[in-house]
């Protein structure tokens, strides 16, 4: 479950007066706006803080309390059962529940309902929102939100280092942080987050161009124990579109984040084979890796990735146009348990590379060889005979592919679920052949004559 909120106009004095989970006796129905807390989906509301520091619910919309209020069947349910029902409600509905009466207000603020924060609003003063929310959620542990595990702020363009400092200070149990598109944050604040949130495993900083490195603060390094002192426990790291990242920064990241299993560097255009080598040498547990659109990566970088061996299951080198059959041969020789490979736009890859792949990685599930204009039906025939478990195949803009190659795939890979033949010279007969043999297959095409 997650929550999202939009803070209304509160004075600085009112903000500081918000108590950590106000006691039940303070919940008095007053005129005002509903509390700005959500449950699992994105919703935004205004917050009004009373003079005594409480956050009221809207008595006008919920009706009068006392004798004028009729009992409903819901009133006969136990608190535990009501909370269980609340746990399935979307955010906006949970907010409305807090406006019904005092009992529902109390139950809707049960701590285990608020383990996530999920906000996405480019106009929201997210730094201030985080300060108020984390203060409100500090119930029995002042200034610390022990229940808060996941924070998703993707698209909150106004997030700054101040907001990250709040997260680092008040959310020690954080396991997931997503700040994609928050382009104002810098290395300094991120260092503090990874240093003060030792359980952080999932980090998405997509589209944060000021992030060029990830490491512990000097203070955290000095306090840490000798065995694990310089390690960050991240397992998932997405740095897509962090175009300021260079090989030097990647070296620091790889040496500090040795537990990474999924690492994405899409469109980090300054990365070269040297940076890829650092990753291969330090992140031995890596299962998924992407350097899509990193055009300075060549066969040398692919050869270094082969060090990962059977551990590597997912690799994307889209538009790395210096990758050739030589790199594919070395990769597939050692990484023979690949399940996903995307070499779209690697125009130097030929049938020879596809044949190496098919014979070495016969458990392949997904392959994208779109815009590999040198691949022909010969390569597809070998692929069809050696990779019967193939479920997704993209042949987009492979001009030398004909009906013969597509029919071989359909006849041998009957579990195929997706086939992309856009801009390919495929006839209606071949299209229908695929539909007959691969009944669950979704075919993407550009031919209006296909039906």
Describe it:
- This protein is of the alpha/beta class.
- Helices cover 32% and strands 9% of the residues.
- The chain is built from 17 helices and 13 strands.
- The chain has helices spanning 12-16, 59-62, 79-86, 91-97, 102-107, 126-136, 161-170, 187-196, 218-223, 247-256, 273-282, 299-305, 325-334, 351-360, 377-386, 403-412, 428-437; strands at residues 116-118, 150-152, 176-178, 202-204, 236-238, 262-264, 288-290, 314-316, 340-342, 366-368, 392-394, 418-420, 442-444.
- It has a 13-stranded parallel sheet with strand order 1-2-3-4-5-6-7-8-9-10-11-12-13, with no helix packed on it.
- The protein is globular, with a radius of gyration of 27 Å.
- The two termini are 42 Å apart.
Terminal Cα separation, in Å?
A: 42 Å
Instruction: Tell me what portion of residues adopts beta-strand conformation.
Output: 5-15%
**Rounded to an integer, what's the Rg over CA atoms?**
27 Å
Q: Spatial order of the strands in the main sheet?
A: 1-2-3-4-5-6-7-8-9-10-11-12-13
- Average pLDDT figure: 84
Q: Helix fraction?
A: 25-40%
């Amino acid at each position: 479950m997650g929550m999202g909120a939009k803070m209304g106009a509160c004075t600085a004095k009112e903000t500081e007066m918000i108590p950590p989970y106000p006691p039940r006796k303070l919940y008095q129905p007053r005129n005002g706006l509903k509390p700005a807390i959500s449950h699992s989906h994105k919703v935004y509301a205004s917050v009004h803080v009373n003079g005594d520091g409480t956050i009221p619910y809207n008595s006008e919309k919920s009706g009068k309390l006392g004798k004028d209020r009729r009992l409903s069947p819901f009133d006969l349910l136990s608190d535990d059962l009501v909370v269980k029902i609340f746990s399935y409600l979307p955010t906006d509905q949970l907010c409305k529940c807090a406006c019904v009466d005092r009992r529902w207000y109390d139950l809707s603020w049960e701590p285990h309902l608020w383990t996530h924060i999920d906000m996405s609003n480019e106009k929201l003063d997210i730094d201030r929102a985080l300060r108020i929310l984390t203060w409100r959620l500090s119930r029995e542990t002042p200034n610390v939100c022990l229940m808060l595990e996941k924070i998703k702020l993707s698209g909150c363009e106004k997030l700054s280092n101040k907001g990250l400092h709040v997260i680092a200070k008040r959310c020690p149990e954080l396991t997931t942080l997503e700040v994609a598109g928050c382009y104002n944050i810098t290395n300094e604040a991120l260092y503090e987050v990874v240093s003060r949130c030792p359980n952080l495993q999932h980090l998405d900083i997509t589209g944060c161009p000021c992030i060029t490195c990830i490491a512990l603060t000097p203070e955290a390094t000095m306090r840490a124990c000798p065995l694990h002192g310089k390690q960050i426990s991240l397992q998932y790291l997405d740095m897509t579109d962090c175009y300021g990242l260079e090989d030097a920064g990647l070296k620091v990241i790889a040496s500090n984040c040795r537990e990474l299993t999924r690492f994405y560097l899409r469109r980090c255009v300054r990365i070269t084979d040297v940076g890829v080598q650092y990753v291969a040498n330090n992140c031995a547990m890596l299962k998924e890796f992407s350097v899509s659109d990193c055009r300075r990566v060549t066969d040398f970088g692919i050869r270094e990735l082969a060090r990962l061996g059977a551990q590597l299951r997912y690799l994307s080198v889209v538009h790395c146009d210096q990758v050739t059959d030589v790199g594919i041969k070395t990769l597939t020789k050692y990484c023979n348990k690949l399940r996903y490979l995307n070499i779209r736009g690697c125009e130097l890859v030929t049938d020879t590379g596809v044949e190496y792949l098919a014979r070495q990685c016969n458990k392949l599930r997904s392959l994208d060889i779109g815009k590999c204009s040198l691949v022909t039906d010969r390569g597809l025939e070998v692929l069809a005979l050696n990779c019967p478990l193939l479920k997704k195949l993209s042949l987009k803009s492979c001009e030398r592919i004909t009906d013969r190659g597509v029919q071989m795939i359909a006849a041998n890979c009957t579990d195929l679920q997706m086939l992309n033949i856009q801009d390919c010279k495929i006839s209606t007969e071949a299209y229908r052949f695929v539909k007959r043999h691969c009944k669950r297959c979704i075919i993407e095409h550009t031919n209006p004559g296909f039906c």
